[in-house]
Design brief:
Number of helices: 2
Number of strands: 4
Helix content: 10-25%
Oligomer: single chain
Low-confidence stretches: none
Strand order of the largest sheet: 1-4-3-2
Radius of gyration: 14 Å
Order of helices and strands: EHEEEH
Mean pLDDT: 92
Length: 96
């Protein structure tokens, strides 16, 4: 499992998805899977949600880009949001 460092302001970075590998759900994401959507929406219109739940925003994306390896993201958890605060503590303690 890849460790995700997080700074004092709740910033973190890593791959949200990697290409050509079987993921935990049994899916394989192909190169270019995000290209069209990112070109259409841009980073500003992609919400950072807990478990893809639109009722659970936890932060903001500062960068989202598809490269040769996968979908690279850089984001910041929002302080004072209970779920974001819990995620930050879990990341700091390497529990997730």
């Amino acid at each position: 499992m890849q460790q995700i460092p997080i700074d004092d302001e709740g910033r973190f970075a890593g791959y949200a998805s990697v290409f050509d590998r079987l993921d935990e759900s049994g899916d394989i994401v192909l190169h270019g899977a995000f290209r069209k959507s990112l070109a259409k929406r841009g980073r500003e219109r992609v919400r950072m949600l807990f478990q893809h739940d639109p009722k659970e925003p936890v932060g903001v994306w500062e960068q989202i880009a598809e490269d040769g390896y996968g979908l690279w993201v850089e984001g910041r958890l929002t302080p004072g949001v209970p779920r974001a605060d819990a995620l930050r503590r879990l990341i700091e303690r390497r529990a997730v």
